[in-house]
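Retry 2 of 3 after timeout on previous attempt. Resubmitting structure tokens to design endpoint.
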């Protein structure tokens, strides 16, 4: 999975153990799913998981790791990833924005991202298969980036991994059903009934859209106007969340707990 601040990679077994302490915990709602590490860990135990995140890249990760059923999509995914891996590079928006105007990736890898992303859009794939392809591309790009793990800036000198060739891999999707949502957390909390809610909101003033704007633009593929040395999508200037505000987070959490149906 992608490098991510606040990732619960080491805590997943403990979170699963805590959820398992409740006998009736077969249906779990993850309201701020991020990379879907926790949601995937819960799905691996056989639970039905609903993973929600309001950012497009995060909900795409959830559609891949929670909603996509390996029994249905794994063989199709293997074939698709093999075909996308054979595409010739073709520089476009991604190369210009994130390899030339900003230096997150080597241009040769950027040109491969451009070609693969355009082909994914051209194929108009089913949602689960599209998510698997996008996550494969996101994770491949993450393995050859030149950052400290967030996209607030890029390194002055190229990271050693940036010289490696971009390589698509089939994401390790799990068998069984699940559901991915792309809603505001309060909206999702009011809409979905479950046995348990796992609530892990942001914990500082920096929005995850700003931290991972490259992935947001890669998934949306809307080729937005950008600004600053980090070449952030212009939307980052306007995006505000109660959960990134010291002044507003108390009320935000109170509203969330009032409507949650778990």
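Retry 2 succeeded. Sequence:
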């Amino acid at each position: 999975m992608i490098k991510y601040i606040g990732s619960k990679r080491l805590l997943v077994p403990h979170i699963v153990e805590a959820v398992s302490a409740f006998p009736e915990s077969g249906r779990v709602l993850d309201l701020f799913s991020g990379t879907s590490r926790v949601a995937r860990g819960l799905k691996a135990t056989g639970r039905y998981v609903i993973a929600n995140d309001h950012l497009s890249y995060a909900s795409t990760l959830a559609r891949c790791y929670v909603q996509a059923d390996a029994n249905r999509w794994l063989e199709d995914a293997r074939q698709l990833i093999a075909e996308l891996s054979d595409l010739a590079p073709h520089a476009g928006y991604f190369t210009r924005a994130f390899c030339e105007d900003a230096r997150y990736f080597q241009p040769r890898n950027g040109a491969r991202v451009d070609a693969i992303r355009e082909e994914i859009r051209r194929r108009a794939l089913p949602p689960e298969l599209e998510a698997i392809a996008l996550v494969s591309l996101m994770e491949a790009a993450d393995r050859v980036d030149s950052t400290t793990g967030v996209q607030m800036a890029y390194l002055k000198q190229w990271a050693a991994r940036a010289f490696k060739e971009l390589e698509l891999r089939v994401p390790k999707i799990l068998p069984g059903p699940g559901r991915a949502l792309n809603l505001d957390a309060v909206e999702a909390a009011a809409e979905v009934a479950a046995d348990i809610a796992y609530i892990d909101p942001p914990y500082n003033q920096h929005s995850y859209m700003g931290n991972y704007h490259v992935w947001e633009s890669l998934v949306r593929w809307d080729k937005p106007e950008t600004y600053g040395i980090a070449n952030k999508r212009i939307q980052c200037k306007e995006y505000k969340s109660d959960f990134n505000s010291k002044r507003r987070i108390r009320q935000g959490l109170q509203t969330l707990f009032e409507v949650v149906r778990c």
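Attempt log closed. The chain has one domain: 12-259.
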